[in-house]
Write a structure and sequence with these properties.
Elements (H helix, E strand, L loop, with lengths): L2 H26 L4 H23 L5 H4 L2 H20 L8 H23 L4 H22 L13 H16 L4 H22 L12
Helix pairs in contact: 1-2, 1-4, 1-5, 1-6, 2-4, 2-5, 2-6, 5-6, 5-7, 5-8, 6-7, 7-8
Length: about 210
């Protein structure tokens, strides 16, 4: 399959995953249908928008190729309709963290790739990948009035940096995208998934007892 087509599919997958996570977060806050769509869409395209502004890629990607915006609009609406039809209690919907994990893995690699294409240093490109992966989730949490996930001691930014950093390293070693992309995606997702299942967390501040 052509590499550009693969990247487009991955972009749709990441946008859909984050848009669904935004919709589920909106459901837990009992938002209306427009709240679902707005929060889901901003979650889907937010990280990539921040990245493009920082690396000077203008107009931003979804303005040039709006298919990712369409995906980010349709998915939360579909979640709203499905939840209404099936009558699920929001608390029983487990998909937020797993949808977020998929989006995190995909966008950490795509964000790093976009930065590398602009000639940005691989280390900075890995950071841009993490920003792309985490930006939408941060905006989602702020809109929903919760503490952003990056501040909750979750193995989140670390997973994004691992996926993006691995991709930058593999590219720097000369590995072609058809191998580098799936390897980096798998590592980022597996790290995040294991952390969720095992309850891993990063060290937090603890004041010493005097």
């Amino acid at each position: 399959m052509d590499l550009l087509v693969t990247v487009q599919y991955l972009d749709w997958l990441g946008s859909a995953a984050f848009a669904v996570s935004g919709a589920i977060a909106a459901a837990r806050r009992r938002f209306d249908v427009m709240g679902f769509v707005v929060v889901g869409a901003i979650t889907g395209i937010g990280g990539g928008t921040l990245r493009d502004l920082l690396i000077g890629r203008l107009p931003v990607a979804w303005m040039v190729h709006p298919s990712s915006l369409y995906v980010s609009l349709v998915c939360p609406f579909a979640v709203f309709v499905l939840l209404r039809m099936r009558g699920h209690a929001i608390e029983t919907v487990p998909g937020l963290r797993w949808a977020d994990a998929v989006g995190l893995a995909v966008f950490s690699v795509l964000g790093c790739s976009a930065a590398l294409e602009r000639g940005i240093d691989p280390f900075i490109a890995a950071i841009m990948g993490a920003l792309t992966a985490a930006g939408g989730g941060v905006i989602r949490d702020l809109l929903c009035g919760t503490v952003p996930i990056v501040f909750r001691r979750e193995v989140y930014i670390l997973a994004a940096l691992t996926g993006g950093g691995l991709y930058a390293m593999l590219r720097n070693l000369g590995l072609a995208d058809p191998l580098a992309v799936p390897c980096a995606l798998a590592v980022g997702f597996v790290l995040r998934a294991i952390a969720m299942v095992k309850g891993w967390s990063v060290p937090g501040w603890r004041e010493r007892n005097r």
